[in-house]
């Protein structure tokens, strides 16, 4: 019998497990539309809905199934409190731009709230205060500075010396009137509203390129074409780079979540620790009217760091220390992209491609940033003024400190590229136990191997098909992860997350 504190053997998102998603057909022919939106997460669905409501002919393309990517693996906090960011933004960009960032995300929160009320969407939406707390004396001054920034920008908040959650805390900064919800219940309903407005959804349809002649055409992996006036890439990592070199302007982070049943009553509020390792905490209401405690954290660059199952073990240890855990019901992980200046890229992909738009780089705050992206891109396509265009434009100028961060990130890429090529491997495929994977030596070369529960062996070339780095085995998710730009592949080599578009090459014994 499995003891109640054990971590589930396989990852499963509570959001996905608790949602029955409608299925949509794949694209089987070339078509025409006003707008092609690529990516079936919060940005793509919201953008598609907004444009369809304006009377445009919109198609939404998803490589797999709607809402099974980053949006399906979020903690789903709808908040403009994105860690301790406002003092930093004021220092780096000035108060005016810091206020714009807050307003864009607050307007996104209000839009979500309005949609839920207007469309009568049952998605567990509730107003919550959001807390960034610390139990470290070193961080108290940072929280005090953040509270000063709130006051300067007119953000409704408070400073407290304790929190309602039963965790040790010396101080907290609170942002009032934020929210939480079940993201897939909200977005699956919004997808249906998009179809009712005349939109069309194609699942299992992978967009691989854009040709601009001069209007864009989206090309799928099956060779079908979507002729359109505008293309919007909402694919987490842009499926089309457009000479914007986004692979060198962002890095990918992974973080982890446990869904726990605990003895204690969980108070209202959404919580995030200021210090490392981060701890993100909120609850979700289950159909049985029980509160599921969601605990996230353990962020690291994708493909780098310790054995990934250890991150779940660290969360389990923390939860057991502070709560009476009855069961660990779920575990899952998420991948997030971070830009050099910590602001998303939203807008025209490059200045020379005025009809191709991207939305990416949300730095773990996709519920509001993703919605703000949809509102902004709608206005750009409709040629309406939007106060946030300059703040989020992918073509914005960057500071010397941002350039420094990008240099460090790309030096890190180079380090892992070289290290992977020089690694000496001694393990052999036959050394693997059942349900075990790892890097092995095959025919004198580095290869990847996974042996499933029935003993079937899957062998792949570990060279990432994006830019040639060597992928590493992620035993927590049973995937091959690239430490350079964050591409992820299934145990059999199939693409799980970009920027890679082609699968890993399969090998034979």
Keywords summarizing the entry:
single chain; 509 residues; alpha+beta; nine-stranded mixed β-sheet; six-stranded mixed β-sheet; 10 helices; globular
Oligomer: single chain
Low-pLDDT windows of residues:
409-422
CA radius of gyration: 22 Å
Average of per-residue pLDDT values: 91
Structural class: alpha+beta
> What is the end-to-end distance?
37 Å
Description:
The protein is of the alpha+beta class and 509 residues long. Helix content is 27%, strand content 28%. The strands form 5 sheets. Strands 4, 5, 6, 7, 13, 14, 15, 16 and 17 form a 9-stranded mixed beta sheet that branches. Strand 2 (35-38), helix 2 (42-53) and strand 3 form a beta-alpha-beta unit. Helix 2 packs parallel to helix 8, helix 3 crosses helix 4 and helix 4 (95-118) crosses helix 8 (366-381). The longest helix is centred in the first third of the chain and has 24 residues, at 95-118. It is globular, with a radius of gyration of 22 Å. The two termini are 37 Å apart. Residues 409-422 have low confidence and may be disordered.
């Amino acid at each position: 019998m499995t003891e109640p504190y054990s971590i589930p053997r396989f990852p499963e998102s509570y959001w996905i497990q608790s949602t029955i998603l409608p299925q949509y057909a794949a694209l089987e022919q070339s078509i025409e539309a006003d707008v092609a939106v690529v990516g079936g997460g919060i940005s793509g669905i919201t953008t598609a809905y907004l444009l369809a409501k304006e009377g445009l002919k919109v198609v939404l393309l998803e490589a797999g199934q709607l809402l099974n990517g980053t949006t399906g693996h979020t903690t789903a906090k709808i908040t403009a409190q994105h860690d301790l960011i406002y003092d930093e933004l004021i220092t780096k960009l000035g108060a005016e731009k810091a206020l714009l960032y807050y307003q864009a995300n607050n307007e996104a929160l209000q839009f979500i709230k309005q949609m839920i009320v207007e469309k009568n969407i049952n998605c567990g939406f509730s107003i919550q205060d959001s807390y960034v707390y610390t139990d470290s004396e070193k961080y108290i001054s940072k929280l005090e500075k953040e509270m000063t920034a709130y006051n300067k920008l007119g953000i409704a908040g408070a400073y407290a010396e304790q929190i309602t959650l039963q965790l040790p805390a010396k101080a907290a900064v609170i942002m009032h009137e934020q929210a939480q919800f079940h993201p897939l219940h909200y977005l699956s309903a919004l997808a249906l509203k998009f179809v009712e407005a005349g939109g069309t959804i194609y699942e299992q349809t992978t967009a691989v390129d854009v040709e601009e002649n001069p209007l864009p055409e989206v090309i799928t992996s099956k060779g079908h074409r979507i002729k359109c006036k505008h293309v919007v890439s909402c694919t987490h990592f842009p499926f089309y780079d457009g000479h914007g070199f986004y692979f060198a302007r962002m890095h990918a982070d992974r973080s982890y979540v446990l869904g726990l049943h605990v003895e204690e009553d969980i108070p209202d509020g959404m919580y995030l620790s200021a210090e490392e390792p981060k701890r993100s905490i909120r609850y979700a209401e289950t159909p049985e009217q029980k509160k599921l405690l969601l605990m996230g954290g353990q962020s690291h660059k994708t493909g780098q760091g310790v054995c990934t199952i250890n991150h779940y073990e660290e969360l389990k240890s923390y939860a057991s220390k502070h709560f009476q855990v009855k069961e660990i019901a779920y575990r899952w992980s998420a991948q997030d992209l971070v830009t050099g200046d910590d602001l998303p890229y939203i807008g025209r992909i490059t200045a020379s491609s005025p009809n191709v738009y991207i939305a990416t780089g949300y730095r773990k705050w996709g519920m509001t940033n993703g919605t703000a992206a949809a509102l902004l891109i709608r206005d750009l396509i409709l040629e309406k003024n939007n106060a946030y265009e300059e703040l989020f434009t992918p073509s914005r100028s960057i500071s010397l400190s941002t350039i420094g961060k990008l240099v460090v990130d790309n030096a890190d890429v180079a380090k892992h590229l070289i290290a992977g090529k020089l690694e000496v491997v001694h393990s052999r495929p036959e050394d693997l136990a059942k349900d075990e994977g790892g890097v092995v030596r095959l025919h004198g070369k580095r290869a990847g191997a996974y042996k499933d529960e029935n003993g079937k062996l899957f062998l792949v070339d570990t060279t990432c098909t994006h830019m040639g780095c060597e992928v590493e085995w992620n035993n927590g998710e049973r995937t091959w992860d690239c430490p350079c730009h964050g591409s992820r592949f299934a145990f059999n080599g199939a693409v799980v997350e970009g920027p890679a578009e082609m699968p890993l090459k399969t090998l034979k014994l």
